[in-house]
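Methods: example folding runs. The two proteins below were folded one after another, and each record is reproduced exactly as written to the output file, sequence line first and structure-token line second.
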Amino acid sequence: MRIRIFGLSPFLIKIRGVAKAEELMKMVVKLRPASAYNEETLGGIAADQGRFEDAIINQRKALGDRAYEERSGTKANTRLKAYQDKKPIRD
């Protein structure tokens, strides 16, 4: 998903910024309101902005989706741990 890459890629954040990624994610959420990947991306954006409590909430919501947890569980839990340690992660 392009917005996910845009939201979390270190290179793209450097050139475009987290604010632009957040703006684009708002449009994605309108088009696809219920998605674990939305929560994952919003969590990444929040972490980049230093809002780690929000990042943790978003990542936990994503992990609440069984299919997402089965596909991305290891990386998702690593991401959650990083947010709990107050570290943004870009993968």
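Second run, written to the same file directly after the first:
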Amino acid sequence: MPKQWKLLPKIKKESVSQFPDINPVCLQLLFNREINTQEKIDEFFNSDYLDDIHDPYLLKDMKTAVKRIYRAIKKQEEVLLVIGIETLLLIFYILYLKIIQKNLELIIEDFI
């Protein structure tokens, strides 16, 4: 069965004019994620990561992935991570691995 894309409605012109400092494409992405008030936008761009970030272990199979990455580091294997934007938080969790492990390569897919 072919994938059915669900397109969200295009952002209204009034919303674009309400936030003139934000690129319309970025604003569309924010609104798609229900980040649609000045307060929510400010919180998104100026997050207090200690208070606002969610536990990465809530992601499916995170424990398995972390164990596998650590095992690869221990064995000095090369690690290639291909992630989508929705797993961007994973970067914050594993960035320090790049510092201690020279064989870690990170690819972020561009879906825009």
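Comment on the second run: Strands lie at 79-83, 104-108.
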